[in-house]
Design brief:
The protein contains ten helices and eleven strands. By secondary structure, it is of the alpha+beta class. The chain folds into three domains: 2-79, no CATH class; 96-277, no CATH class; 287-371, no CATH class. A five-stranded antiparallel β-sheet has the order 10-9-8-7-11. Strands 3-4-5-6 form a four-stranded antiparallel β-sheet, sandwiched between helices. Strands 1-2 form a two-stranded antiparallel sheet. A hairpin with a 5-residue loop joins β7 and β8 (310-313). The chain is globular and about 80 Å long. The chain starts with a helix and ends with a helix. Bound molecules: zinc ion. Zinc ion (ZN) binds at residues 87, 89-90, 95, 97, 115.
């Protein structure tokens, strides 16, 4: 009997897994989640008294629930692509409109038919009559931030072209950062757009994300890193707030982000001067970073998809970033939630064994170099 029940259970499982795969294969956008979809959670009501039509109802409910779970997952992935904004005209972040055309460009709103408008940051500051706009053209450009409310950003967007499910809750534009680049001076200026947006699934549940738009360098340390970390943990508390409270709270978070970006730039300016004074100290991995790298197991490695750095999750929240050629880019402390958030938002993925090995070897080679 037990044997029979077990066999029947396995068959039901296999049949249901087959059904999910079948439905997934017919969904537009199904390919976006297929590689990462592991299991789905369903609530099922099975009628045992043979009531009329119960099998029919069961089937309809089952298919509707699977449909909803898959739609939610696809919608979330489709709306949040790191580094790209949402194009209402094309209904996603995949088109050529979704990316800034140069490192100076920031998001400035939507055209009536839904394509994003990108503007030179200095031009935008000029239009906004920012009092320090002249200083953006200095040799060492000033660092300015602009906080925008969502209404201002979708002012021109016609209601008929608004895609359902995606909502932009506001943004901070910031610039100029000075980053390595292929200009004559070896440096180039960079402006960024930090957008807070949400996607609501068919169940009406909102998921918030912070997206950074801009031509960011291949590897850190990124001077906006701490501010972004703070923002992400602040956004994680938003799910519980009431609708009428929401805009107000997002506005508060965006001002907090702008303030932190400013602070980081100021203290970075001081640190850079110090570093220039004692140049040559380089990027020697700290002892702790090397220890954590040594002790880390396969599950403690992630890869930051945006820049290819290997993330090593060490003891007590210590998190180290190694470039593909084995340099320690930075070490920070991350909460468990922050780490899970990165993985959930697909900014990080689990690293492959070959990726881990490569970096380990390069780090060892470097460490040897600097000793001899
Ligand atoms: Zn488009």
């Amino acid at each position: 009997m037990n044997d029979r029940a077990g066999k029947l259970g396995r068959k039901i499982h296999d049949d249901m897994a087959g059904l999910v795969r079948e439905m997934l294969s017919r969904k537009p956008g199904g390919h976006l989640i297929e590689p990462t979809l592991k299991d789905i959670v369903l609530e099922l009501a099975v009628s045992v008294n043979d009531a009329e039509g119960s099998a029919l109802r069961f089937s309809a409910d089952l298919i509707r629930d699977i449909d909803r779970v898959l739609d939610d997952a696809i919608q979330h992935v489709a709306m949040f692509r790191p580094g790209r904004t949402f194009c209402h005209r094309c209904g996603g972040p995949e088109c050529e409109h979704a990316e800034p055309p140069s490192s100076r460009h920031v998001f400035a709103g939507y055209r009536p038919t839904g394509t994003p408008v990108w503007k030179d940051f200095a031009q935008l500051c000029l239009e906004e009559r920012h009092e320090q706009v002249d200083r953006l053209y200095d040799d060492k450009p000033a660092f300015l931030t602009l906080v925008r409310e969502p209404e201002a950003l979708r002012l021109d967007l016609l209601p008929a072209f608004r895609a359902k499910g995606y909502r932009l809750h506001g943004q901070v534009t910031a610039g100029f950062y000075t980053v390595p680049g292929n200009t004559a001076a070896g440096r180039t200026v960079l402006a960024l757009t930090f957008q807070v947006a949400s996607a609501s699934g068919s169940g009406g549940r909102k998921r918030f994300g912070l997206n950074i738009l801009g031509h960011t360098p291949q590897e850190g340390p990124f001077p906006w890193h701490r501010a972004v970390q703070w923002t992400q943990s602040a956004l994680a508390t938003l799910g519980r707030s009431r609708q009428d409270d929401l805009d107000h709270r997002v506005e508060g978070i965006l001002s907090g982000l702008a303030r932190r970006l400013q602070q980081e730039q100021r203290s970075r300016g001081r640190r850079t001067r110090h570093a220039e004074e004692r140049h040559g100290s380089g990027n020697r991995p700290t002892r702790k970073a090397l220890e954590d790298l040594e002790e880390a197991g396969g599950d403690d490695f992630c890869l930051d998809e945006r820049n290819g750095t290997l993330v090593v999750l060490g003891q007590r929240g210590r998190t180290h970033f190694f470039s593909a050629d084995g340099r320690l880019v930075s070490s920070v402390r991350y909460s468990r939630d922050a780490i899970e958030g990165k993985l959930k938002n697909r900014l990080w993925r689990k690293a492959a064994e070959t990726e881990i090995d490569t970096v380990r070897k390069k780090v060892a080679a470097r460490d040897g170099d600097s000793v001899s």
